[in-house]
Amino acid sequence: GDSVTQMEGPVTLSEEAFLTINCTYTATGYPSLFWYVQYPGEGLQLLLKATKADDKGSNKGFEATYRKETTSFHLEKGSVQVSDSAVYFCALNTGNQFYFGTGTSLTVIP
Amino acid sequence: DSGVTQTPKHLITATGQRVTLRCSPRSGDLSVYWYQQSLDQGLQFLIQYYNGEERAKGNILERFSAQQFPDLHSELNLSSLELGDSALYFCASSVDLLSYNEQFFGPGTRLTVL
After folding, report:
1. Between chains, do B99 and A51 touch, taking CB under 8 Å as contact?
2. pLDDT band at A109 (very low <50, low <70, confident <90, very high)
3. Which of A41, B1, B23, B105 would be a feasible disulfide site paired with B91, CB 3.0-4.6 Å?
4. Chain A CA closest to residue B50
């Protein structure tokens, strides 16, 4: 069946370090892919999305490219900040089913 | 603030009891989703409603049910509660059914079953 597999955390980085959080998916058809972020005590909020192969989603310095050939949607940021500390979820929407990865906790230390 | 409201914020109850969680979607959104977030299972999709009708079902137990009312608010009913039902329950909404549309999440209801 359809699923999302996300890199396990927790991840701890120093400020200004490079971030990669891996996400791979299994799906029939052409799903839309998302990264959501959850700050402590809050609900999830959309970080970025891509709706078809080779699309690149970007927001707040984060980027992810929809790679159909490798079924991946890895999240990257060139220089993380303390304020990026949160839990990041990769998600897949097939139109009638919704799958989230297990979440990757990121802590950025000054 | 996502515009999605959920009540109550916290709920503590005993095993065997029944509770109702309430969600009001963003103004104009027709689709409502319910999710369960627990430490061991992650974020699991439970059910989706669109304009009052059930559209998709995920890993929702038979003890759980939901509905969406004409004013588009939704309720999730959990009955015969077990310890393992303790979790954070999120409601989300989106404008329609299209797969590329963003879901807006509420702040969640934390359910503790003792």
Report:
1. yes
2. very high
3. B23
4. A96
